[in-house]
Structures are given as structure tokens and as C-alpha cells.
Amino acid sequence: TESSRIINFGAGPSALPDSVLEEATKGLLNFDNTGIGIAEISHRSPEFTSYLSSVEALIRSQLSVPTTHSILFTQGGGTAQFSAVVLNLLARHRLLFPDLKDEERNLDYVLTGSWSKSAHKEGLRMAGKHQVNVAADGRIYSKDSKSFDIIPPHESYKFSKDPVLIYYCENETVNGVQFKHDSESIDKEGKSIEGTFPFHLLPKDKLVPLVGDYSSSFMSRPIPRLADHAVIYAGAQKNIGPAGLTILIVRNDCIVDVDAAAALGAQPVPVTMSYKTLADNQSAYNTPPVLAIYISGLVLKRNAELGGMEYYEKVNRRKMQTVYGALREGEEKGVFRGHVQPGSESWMNVVFVVLGEGKEKAFLKGAEERGMSGIKGHRSVGGMRVSLYNAITEEQADKLAAYMREFIASQ
Ligand code: PLP
Q1: pLDDT value at position 275?
Q2: What is the pLDDT of residues 244-253, one digit of tens each?
Q3: Where does the Aminotransferase class V domain start and stop, copy by copy (predicted)?
């Protein structure tokens, strides 16, 4: 039951709903009344094939994915996409602009934390003679000029002309920095809504190769301007299911014949990384991660029953307000200090330090004693990190906030 399990505030793989795990144990023994378990059944069986289509349909309806975009399933996580997205979009660019030299094809990266930094590093590895630009860098605006603690201001963005891709990370899991989810990035007077991605600075008359890394915020609230993205990707292991499944939303003009591009001089693309391979084979060119797809499907079905993204947006906003509320009280009393500047705070990952010698240990120990775990921060940032993914309930967020207040009072 819910009460016998530890509350897992870990950053990923992270908590899953008890009801889903209980249902999954049945599927492990007998999937869809086949008498064969989900980890044993052929991925080519009609039962699994139809299950896979239903998972796609659940994502399409919950995120309102338009028909201009395909939903693809693969493996390798966000990390494999750091490379795959570069290769597929380099191929697209080659087909669009066959006569440009490599040197004239730029990749743009927006740096807001350690994951976008990793993506940028992989871009540099993959890019050969291409220019890899930093389109904006949050560190310039940070409290200490070196940490990632803010979404950069709109005026600081510099995009290349006709870039191969523009990459940004919607939620920085390690640093706790997230873009705001307004679908407009300017207000009615044309003034910037800071903290949003500057959609208004992108050309309007072109299909922009905008890439959103949604690894740690996918399905936690609606995706603003989804239709304006070329590629959105996420590993399942934060908000959706077990590790092993990677979900892609790809605009159809980005599903290109990578071999035709290679014939024009683009780099060859490994067959399993090509978006066209995935699209042409209903995401089952080779064996897909059947168990991860199964459990993710159960979670998505449950989401639909609860009210989809509208429900999660409401609940996740309340959870975030609860925990940041306790954090702000701790700041006033000199007990806690939040890592992220106002307006850039993540709903999913709340990063803060406990002030004073030995206090972090005491805070962690108290949390463990109360059945809460996974709140120690990432080694690169230190301090605490509380992850509030979909499976964390409001009651669990309340329990953490109550403990934070208890801790403040005891200091
Ligand atoms: N991008 C973000 C924002 C992440 O949080 C992570 C993992 O935590 C990754 C990329 C890498 O994902 P994976 O471990 O699935 O390769």
C-alpha cells in the first residue's frame, strides 16, 4: 500500500503510482489475456502492436500533438538524442541547402544548465567543421557569474541565420532551472515575458529546426508552442514510466532520407538513430523496450482518467507552490537558501541548500526518519534537490513541506 512505501523524491528513475505497479505485475504474468507475460511476448504480436498504437494515441491526445508531427519511440535516452538530433537535422539541412559548405551550417545551443551543457558538448563532437554557437548563456546572468541559476533574458539571444538546429533544455534537472510555460513570449504591448523561450525572435515564415529537450518535464503540463518545434524528446523515467523508453515528437519535415543526404556529403546516420527508420517501421524496426512501453502505457491511461495535462498542470502547480512556500519561509529565517533566481524556478526539481555546519546531514536524516528519500542534491551542485514528478501526490508534497517547517522551527 501507499503508506508502506518510502516517498521517493529522487530525480530519476523516480516514483511510479502504486496502482500502476500493481496492475503491471498482472501484465508481467498475463498480457492482454494472451496467457503470455509482457516481458515475454513478441513485439510483433497483434496484441503488442495494438498496445503500442494506443500508447501513441494517448500521448497525441493528451498533448494535442498535431498531424504535422509524428510520435516515435526509441531507446538510448536523452543522451542518445544529443547525437541523433544533430545527425538527423544535419541530413535535413544538407537536403535543404545542398550547396552550402559545412562551415556555413551552424548549430545553436541555449545554455541554461548542466544538461544543455552536455548537449552542446556532444554537438561539438558531432559537428565536424560546422560552427557550434552558444545562442544564449544563463551563467552570464547568474548570482556568481558561473552557476546556472536563471533563464537568460530575451535580449541576450543571438540565433544564426538558417541554423541546422536550435537546442534548448526546457527543464534543467540538475540545476532546477526551467522555462516558463506561457505560450506567448511577449505581452500585448510587445514587451518580453522574461523566463519564457523567446519564440517571437524566431522567423515566422520558415519551419524552424527548434529542438526541445523535455526529459524531465514531459507530460507534467502542456507544452507551449508544441507545433513550432522540430523535435521534442524525453526519456520516460521521470514522469511517465521506467527507464529504457525514449519518446520523440518529430515534425514531419525533419524525417528525412538520411542516405540521400549522405550521398550529398552529409554524415551517415546509424540506422537505428534515423528518424525515418523509426517512422517507416512504426517504431519497431528492431525490438523496442516492451516492458517500459507497457508500464508507460498504464501511466498514460491513468493520466487520461485523471484529466490529462489540465489535471497535472493544476496538481503540479500546487505541489510546487507548497514546497517553494516552505523554502521561502526557511530563507526568511536563515535556514534554507534557494539556488535559483526568482522567475526561473523549476516545478519539477527544487534545488536549495540548508545553511550552517552539519545542517544538511541533520535535514537529510530527519527526512529519512520520516520515510522520505532521494532529496540529496546532485554532486555537481550540492545541497538538496526535491523532485516533484507526476507520481508525487499533493499529500506527499504537503508532508515534505510540513517537515521543512518543523526543521525551520527547530533551528
Ligand atoms: N536531458 C535532461 C534534461 C535530463 O534530465 C537527462 C537525464 O536526467 C538527460 C537529458 C539524459 O537522459 P538519459 O539519462 O535518459 O540519457
Answers
A1: 98
A2: 999 999 999 9
A3: 7-400
Joined together, the cell numbers standing for residue 79 give: 543522451
Rounded to the nearest 10°, the torsion over CA 350, 352, 358, 361 is: 10
- The Å distance, Cα 264 to ligand 1 centre, comes to 32
Beta bridge partners of 250: 70, 231
Q: Which of 141, 74, 150, 79 is nearest to 112 (CA)?
A: 150
Place of cell 545553511: 355
Q: Residue 316 half-sphere exposure, CB side, CA atoms within 13 Å?
A: 25
The whole-number pLDDT of residue 1 equals 46
| C-alpha angle 24-27-32 in degrees, rounded to nearest 5 | 135
With the most atoms of ligand 1 within 8 angstroms of its CB, the residue from 82, 169, 173 to mutate is 173
Residue range 286-322, pLDDT digits in tens: 999 999 999 999 999 999 999 999 999 999 999 999 9
CB 215 within 8 A of CB 238: yes
Of all atoms in ligand 1, which is nearest to the CA of residue 174?
5
Q: How far apart are CA 170 and CA 167, in angstroms?
A: 10
Asked whether 73 and 288 are in contact (CB, 8 A), the reply is yes
**What is the model's pTM?**
0.97
Residue with the three cell numbers 546532485: 378
pLDDT tens for 111-123 read 999 999 999 999 9
Q: Which ligand 1 atom sits closest to the C-alpha of 243? A: 15
* Pairing verdict, β 231-235 and 246-251: antiparallel
Nearest-CA residue for ligand 1 atom 12 is: 78
The CA distance from 81 to 71, in Å, is 14
Q: Atom of ligand 1 at shortest distance to CA of 113? A: 3
Please list the ranges in the chain whose pLDDT falls under 50. 1
Task: Give the pLDDT of residue 128.
Answer: 87
Residue 35: per-residue pLDDT: 97
The Å distance, Cα 235 to ligand 1 centre, comes to 7
In this structure, which residue's CA is closest to atom 14 in ligand 1?
77
Joined grid coordinates for residue 33: 489475456
Which residue's CA lies nearest to atom 3 of ligand 1? Answer: 215
- Angle, alpha carbons 362-363-367 (nearest 5°): 115
Output 303-311 pairs: Cβ under 8 A, ≥24 positions apart.
Answer: 303/58, 303/62, 303/219, 303/390, 304/58, 304/61, 304/62, 308/61, 308/62, 309/62, 309/63, 309/219, 309/221, 309/222, 310/222
Q: Which atom belonging to ligand 1 lies closest to the Cα atom of 171?
A: 3
